[in-house]
Specification:
Layout: H1 3-21, E1 25-30, H2 50-57, E2 63-68, E3 76-81, H3 84-93, H4 96-103, E4 107-109, E5 114-121, H5 124-130, E6 134-136, E7 141-144, E8 149-152, E9 164-165, E10 173-176, H6 177-187, H7 194-200, H8 217-227, H9 236-249, H10 254-267, H11 278-293, H12 301-312, H13 315-329, E11 338-344, E12 349-354, E13 359-369, E14 372-382, E15 385-393, E16 400-408, E17 411-420, H14 422-431, H15 438-454, E18 459-462, E19 468-472, E20 475-479, H16 485-488
Parallel strand pairs: 5-10, 15-18
Antiparallel strand pairs: 1-2, 2-8, 3-5, 3-7, 4-5, 4-9, 6-7, 11-12, 12-13, 13-14, 15-16, 16-17, 19-20
Length: 489
């Protein structure tokens, strides 16, 4: 086999493994084509495991490689420009901030154009509703999202040209919903506003809560009705801003918060409603949620009281409104979904678990001014967080086993482990490609788990790990095993 042909056999596997480590769903294509070499629909929901990649790309014939877009690859969107000229025209059209984002993310040189890769920081439902796959004839670009895939390096085009990275291998940028909407508005200016999507969505069912802290349609309308008297010119943005912060802190989904803002505009006779200007009002909501998810405090209940007092100048009315809102929304949480554990208290170093972004990292609290401190994130350690756990302690041997669930943005499917020891957990996380910094991963994971146990976030049960009869705390205990029916016979 010639060296030239040999690389077509070896390169795709190396690339596929790297893509998999980045949380991307990879499938094989027939060599020099865009045609899938396997049935791939199932992999739109769940990424193929690494062992599949070795099977697909180690076969006797060379392969092209594709990356599936959408939720399964971490809310991946690829802007597929057919023509290089249109790509550069797009760059010259957008503002400087958007241009820096586009030029700072992974871009692939195709036969005639460019593939621009971006990820959206969003929950799955909002992502699917706001960013479906579609095409812009004006820009000669396919907005590749849910249900689509793109040919990726080091594939070979039918013309013989390779798909290559433009510049160095750089990370795929993760952008906010607000930023992605700005990009989408340039490509598809005729698109409906997010408010109209929310109103007409087939999935927009308000009859029951979507989460534990969800809101029903009746709740949303009641919030809008209660706040409508204060929703006046000069106070609208501030009311939406502080209300969205309260909703975020109370665990209400951003989708529900956007609907509340829409109902409030309707009930409060907002003159900007159903005009392009109303997008700015919704951007206020998304900004509040983005900040809260990043661990940055946002305005909430306290500020809403101040704005209501300014708008109404009636203390009794404000008290009545706030009382009703508390009944509907609930009490804000005191945490932005972060668990902090001191690693070096004197230096302010901590391990932390970001429950919203689903990773464990390392950071540092530093003095900003006076007694105020700012938190600096210093890097990710594990691309997953424990979200549920039950701890079983054997009272005789003292051994500990865990039933534990991990969630990660690298996979839409939670990782569920049962009856495992802590050392086994780390091995499983490694096999799934979730470990970023191996040297400190064990310390970080143990610190977070211990904090969760001490905080009462982990249920602890007593369970004998071996079969037998035991005398414990003045009582007789026995464990037994249930035999299969065929053995008992």
């Amino acid at each position: 086999m010639s060296k030239e042909l040999s690389k077509y056999y070896n390169e795709p596997l190396m690339y596929a493994i790297q893509y998999h480590k980045e949380g991307l769903a990879v499938i094989p294509l027939k060599f020099k084509t865009k045609e899938a070499a396997i049935k791939w629909r199932q992999y739109q929901k769940k990424r193929p495991p690494a062992i599949k990649l070795e099977k697909w790309f180690k076969k006797s014939e060379p392969k092209n490689i594709a990356i599936i877009c959408g939720v399964v690859s971490g809310n991946l969107i690829v802007m597929d420009f057919d023509e290089e000229d249109k790509y550069y025209e797009f760059l010259n059209t957008i503002d400087e901030d958007l241009k820096n984002i586009i030029l700072g993310t992974r871009t692939v040189i195709t036969n005639r154009g460019r593939h621009v890769y971006l990820r959206v920081d969003s929950d799955e439902k909002t992502f699917r509703e706001l960013f479906p796959s579609k095409r812009s004839e004006k820009w000669h670009v396919d907005f590749q999202s849910e249900g689509k895939y793109v040919v990726a390096p080091p594939s070979v085009h039918p013309s013989g040209q390779k798909y290559e990275l433009e510049g160095e291998w750089i990370d795929i940028k993760k952008v906010s919903i607000e930023t992605m909407l700005k990009i989408k508005r340039v490509l598809f200016p005729e698109d409906k506003l997010p408010t109209e999507i929310l109103k007409t969505s087939k999935n927009a069912s308000f009859n029951k809560s979507q989460k534990k802290n969800g809101l029903t349609e009746a709740d949303m309308l009641e919030i809008a009705n209660v706040l409508a008297p204060a929703y006046k010119e000069g106070f609208r943005n501030n009311i939406v801003y502080s209300l969205s912060g309260w909703l975020a802190k109370a665990g209400i989904s951003m989708e529900d918060a956007l609907k509340v803002a829409t109902f409030l505009a309707q009930k409060g006779d907002d003159p900007d409603y159903e005009t392009p200007e109303f997008r700015n009002r919704l951007d206020v909501v998304t900004r509040s949620y983005e900040k809260w998810r990043c661990g940055i405090n946002v305005a909430g209940k306290k500020y809403l009281v101040e704005f209501l007092e300014g708008a109404l100048e009636d203390e009794e009315q404000v008290i009545s409104i706030m009382k009703r809102l508390e009944e509907l929304i609930g009490v804000p949480s005191t945490s932005s979904g972060m668990i902090f554990v001191d690693e070096n208290e004197s230096e302010g170093l901590v391990y932390y678990a970001d429950l919203a972004e689903k990773y464990i990292g390392k950071g540092q609290f530093k003095d900003k001014s006076g007694s105020k401190k700012t938190f600096l994130k210093k890097g990710r350690i594990i691309e997953a967080v424990p979200t549920k756990a039950i701890r079983y302690i054997d009272p005789i041997s003292g051994t500990e086993n865990l039933d534990i669930v991990f969630e990660s943005n690298l996979s839409p499917v939670p990782l569920t482990l049962q009856g495992v020891e802590r050392r086994d957990i780390l091995s499983v996380l490694k096999r799934n490609g979730y470990i970023v910094k191996n040297r400190i991963a064990e310390d970080a994971l143990n610190a977070i788990l211990n904090n969760m146990i001490l905080s009462g976030l982990v249920e602890t049960k007593t369970e004998f790990s071996k079969m037998g009869v035991f005398w414990y705390q003045g009582e007789m205990h026995y464990t037994k095993i249930k035999l299969p029916e065929e053995i008992r016979r």
